[in-house]
């Protein structure tokens, strides 16, 4: 399927797959400390865009506050979401601690930047009720 036949740019094609996978991710700073400044949020977005590019994913949307960030990521099916998350958190933590060392030390200690947990929600496409109904109707036709 070539791009000109596809009116939806979020639907991507591969050799054997057509996909549109989006995840809403939320990362919280360790101890929910207000460690992120506006400059750090801007830098965090840049770093996370680079990481996504390395995974052949796209950071569609980014925003955050002093103690957490939200990401909307469009990723290919060959990417394990948990590995993408580990890279996003690991690379951003390392770089932010290097580039903003004195600021980070005031708020965080022990070599950690992000909390060990995170939120991941799938999004996009049809609502579950519509998909369930579609599948039910397919079974009836067989």
TrEMBL record:
Biological-process GO terms, alphabetical: DNA transposition
Family matches, as Pfam families: Y1_Tnp
Domain Transposase IS200-like: 18-138
GO molecular function, one term: transposase activity
SUPFAM superfamilies found in the cross-reference section: Transposase IS200-like
Source domain of life: Bacteria
Stated name of the protein: IS200/IS605 family transposase
Gene transcribed to yield this protein: tnpA
């Amino acid at each position: 399927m070539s791009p000109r036949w596809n009116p939806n740019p979020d639907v991507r094609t591969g050799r054997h797959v057509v996909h549109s996978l989006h995840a809403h991710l939320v990362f919280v700073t360790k101890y929910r400390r207000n460690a992120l400044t506006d400059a750090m949020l801007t830098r965090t977005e840049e770093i996370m865009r680079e990481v996504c590019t390395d995974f052949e994913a796209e950071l569609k949307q980014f925003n955050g506050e002093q103690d957490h960030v939200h990401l909307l990521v469009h990723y290919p099916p060959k990417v394990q979401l948990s590995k993408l998350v580990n890279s996003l958190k690991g690379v951003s933590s390392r770089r932010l601690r290097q580039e903003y060392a004195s600021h980070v030390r005031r708020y965080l200690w022990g070599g950690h930047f992000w909390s060990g947990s995170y939120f991941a929600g799938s999004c996009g496409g049809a609502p579950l009720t519509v998909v369930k109904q579609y599948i039910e109707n397919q079974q009836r036709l067989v």
